[in-house]
Amino acid sequence: MANETNGRHLKECILKSRYREQLVLTGDKIRMDADVMKGFFGIPLQSILDHVETLLAEPKVTNCSAIVMVGGFSESPKLQEHVQDHFPDMKIIIPEEAGLAVLKGAVIFGHNPTSIAERVGKYTYGERISHLTTNNCTHSRLNTKLDDNGNMRCFDIFRIHVKIGQSVKLGEEQLERISSPLYDTQTSVGFEIYASSKPTPVFVTDPDCSKIGSFSIPIPDTSLGKARKFGTTFLFGGTEIEVKVVDKATGKVTKRTVDFLG
């Protein structure tokens, strides 16, 4: 690889580098000073400490008094030492086989989903909607155009149901949002579900947004036209999102799941 990249043997690369006094090539092995090896950990260690500091500054964890270290990297004495030194007032808990904690948690959750009562949203979840443009509307004109009724509408709006970082109880219905058909003669209404890594996305076309599911509900009776209403509710449970849509005219309930792993 050294030859392919630099056009010279690895030993020659070492001799011409600023690490020539700290590295020795012996056979097919490189021996290095401990300080060089420790330097590999600098950026990841600092990133973890900064991230934990950011989390501890959140109002919801004001009274937090302990840090539980899990995952393979948590078994590193170097990381343990840095966390203990950086957060001297916190109780640092390092369980046995910390690297298996996530795996064991997944197995327990698979056998008994109710063992985890609450989750924190990894993304902001919502649906794609449009609405009539008003004088107070601040949406970009690039997303504004005439619909088939001759009315100006803002399209591709991201209507938020759950924000990133929000705590949601498993199986608990979130706030219901009401939608209506765009046209009187519409024979079905479509729902597109989106996720975003931002807390307050504006449009589903934003770079940080991605479509994670879609479905359509037929409207066999169009007599109510645009006055027909549908209530959309998100439910979180297990490894999937369930989206419930209630036809307010008939009371019919339609449920669709969106796989987190898909």
Secondary-structure topology with pairs:
Layout: H1 2-6, H2 10-15, E1 23-26, E2 29-32, H3 34-39, H4 42-56, E3 66-68, H5 77-86, E4 91-93, H6 101-111, E5 118-120, E6 124-132, E7 144-146, E8 152-162, E9 167-169, E10 177-179, E11 188-196, E12 209-218, E13 230-237, E14 240-247, E15 253-259
Parallel strand pairs: 3-4
Antiparallel strand pairs: 1-2, 5-9, 6-8, 6-11, 7-8, 10-13, 11-12, 13-14, 14-15
Report a brief summary of the structure.
By secondary structure, this protein is an alpha+beta fold.
CATH superfamily of the largest domain: Substrate Binding Domain Of DNAk, Chain A, domain 1
CATH fold assignment of the largest domain: Substrate Binding Domain Of DNAk, Chain A, domain 1
Instruction: Give the overall form.
Output: elongated
| Corresponding CATH architecture of the largest domain | Sandwich
Give the key terms.
single chain; 262 residues; Substrate Binding Domain Of DNAk, Chain A, domain 1; 2 domains; five-stranded antiparallel sheet; four-stranded antiparallel sheet; 34% strand; elongated
